[in-house]
Amino acid sequence: MLYHSEIVYFLLLAAYQLPDSMSDSKMDELTGGNSTIPVQETQGPAQKAMDQKLNVYIWDMDETLILLKSLLNGTYAEAFNGLKDVQKGVEIGKIWEKHILQVCDEYFFYEQIENYNKPSLDALRQYDDGRDLSDYDFNQDGFSPPYDDSNKTKLAYRHRMIAQKYKQGLHIVFDHEMIKLWDDLYELTDNYTDGWLSSARALLEQCSGGNKDSTPCLVSADGIIDSTDTEVQHINVLVTSGSLIPSLVKCLLFRLDHLITHGNIYSSWEVGKLQCFSWIKERFSSPNVQFCVIGDGWEECEAAQTMRWPFVKIDLRPGSSHRFPGLTLRTVGHYFSVVYGIQDAENDEE
């Protein structure tokens, strides 16, 4: 008898005509391969938060908050020494890949701006004149090389529209059938990975202070979580080696958008993670700010060491306590305490 997850798997395979393996460059944009960006001004509630204690959690995406590359190349399943169906994982990864590219192209101008990756949606803010875009025709505005100030303005318009769509979420553009396929794929993937997606999302929510059900929380435009009965604020920041637009779409598809705002998503594709970390430190510059990096790669590890921030290394191998499910708020709190002192380990409570 087929289990529900197996039935969903075969239905999803039937629903999608899976393409042959895409080019290495296209996959790198989705999963991370290998400019300048203005430091975002901190005002209002966010500036108030700077005067209080702030924990900044800097997350990697692939093979940390989500699984994609390790599904596509089989390394996730292979770590289980025959207990996982490698080909099933590959097919699941291909379906996600198709989803991501489809959403990028249909809703986020990716075909137009793929070759103009920026570290964040705010990178060209100074070129945005605030024009009303409600009747703007993005297909007829002549956006094309050369990359001069006029085209930077047109790209800034697209970034502003992408930010609006990110805030709205995908439920506003997906029909009922597409939402059902999306939900089924998420459930199938979560079952195949023994709850990796839901467990990672739960920890992300706990790091936001969302685990305190009795605590009303206010979220500023910068994504800072202000728990009104505590002096500690929390913020999740994503620094991914993938290009920016697919990374935003992955946050939406993997249900992370309510926990990581678009302004807190950085692409290190061209500039490197150390540069992104430096921008983040400057953005949240205060004696009361503590940073912690969580990821699986050598680049974020070295960048965290350079910044003298704690680094939590994600390990895909079964049985590790530094994977999902497995990693807990208590463990993350321990890393804070080692670097910043035991009196600052606010996260020791699970």
In words, what does this structure look like?
The protein has 350 residues and is an alpha/beta fold. The protein has a single domain (4-348), classed as Rossmann fold, CATH 3.40.50.12350. The chain has 14 helices and 7 strands. The chain has helices at 4-15, 24-31, 44-50, 69-72, 75-78, 86-107, 110-113, 149-168, 176-192, 196-207, 244-253, 273-283, 298-307, 329-340, and strands at residues 53-59, 217-219, 225-227, 232-240, 265-267, 289-295, 311-313. Strands 1, 2, 3, 4, 5, 6 and 7 form a 7-stranded mixed sheet that branches. A hairpin with a 4-residue loop joins strand 3 and strand 4 (232-240). Helix 6 (86-107) runs antiparallel to helix 9 (176-192) and helix 12 (273-283) packs across helix 13 (298-307). The longest helix has 22 residues, at 86-107. The chain is globular and about 55 Å long. The model is unreliable at 211-221, 225-229 and 343-350 (pLDDT under 50).
Question: What is this structure, in a nutshell?
Answer:
With 350 residues, the chain is of the alpha/beta class. It has 14 helices and seven strands. The longest helix is centred in the first third of the chain and has 22 residues.
Q: What is the percent of helical residues?
A: 40-55%
Tally of separate helices: 14
Structural class: alpha/beta
Total strand segments: 7
CATH architecture: 3-Layer(aba) Sandwich
Poorly predicted segments: 211-221, 225-229, 343-350
Q: Tell me, rounded to a whole number, the average pLDDT.
A: 86
β-strand percent reads: 5-15%
CATH top level is Alpha Beta
Rounded to an integer, what's the Rg over CA atoms?
20 Å
Number of domains: 1
Distance between the termini: 39 Å
Describe the largest sheet. Answer: 7 strands, mixed
CATH fold title: Rossmann fold
Shape: globular
What order do the helices and strands follow? HHHEHHHHHHHEEEHEHEHEH
